[in-house]
Every structure is written in structure tokens, then in C-alpha cells.
Write a structure and sequence with these properties.
Strand order of the largest sheet: 1-5-6
Strand content: over 45%
Helix content: 10-25%
Distance between the termini: 27 Å
Structural class: mainly beta
Number of helices: 1
Shape: elongated
Largest sheet: 3 strands, antiparallel
Length: 68
């Protein structure tokens, strides 16, 4: 199992609908994994990605700061 700490990247998109331009923002992790904005607002931008190559599962956990 591989494990690494990654940071969500903020992306601002634009879409034109009927001549009107709409802007939106969203967050992605490496491997183009979409993270909802509400999750980033609640837990922050740092996440732990665990990849289990045997079963083919990817687990994403918010990184919590441990207090000693």
C-alpha cells in the first residue's frame, strides 16, 4: 500500500451559457480526483491518499494535525 500527503489545488472555471459567462471554482487532487468545495472548507486542503494496488482501491482521508 502506498500512502502520501497531497494538497488540493483550486481551479477556477468559466462557462458560457446563452452569451452569459459564469465562473465557478472547484478543487482537485492528483489523478484528477474531484473534491467538493464543502469538504475543503471543513477539513482544509491537505489530504492523505492511500493506494492499495492489490485490490485497486484509492482511499482519501483529510490530514489531521496531531497535537503532542
Amino acid at each position: 500500500m502506498k500512502e502520501r500527503v497531497v494538497e488540493a489545488k483550486k481551479i477556477i472555471g468559466k462557462k458560457v451559457v446563452n452569451g452569459k459567462v459564469y465562473e465557478y471554482e472547484y478543487y482537485t487532487l492528483p489523478l484528477n480526483i474531484y473534491i467538493p468545495k464543502s469538504v475543503v472548507e471543513r477539513f482544509g486542503t491537505k489530504f492523505i491518499v492511500r493506494i492499495d494496488e492489490e485490490s485497486g482501491t484509492i482511499t482519501i482521508l483529510p490530514q489531521t494535525e496531531e497535537v503532542a
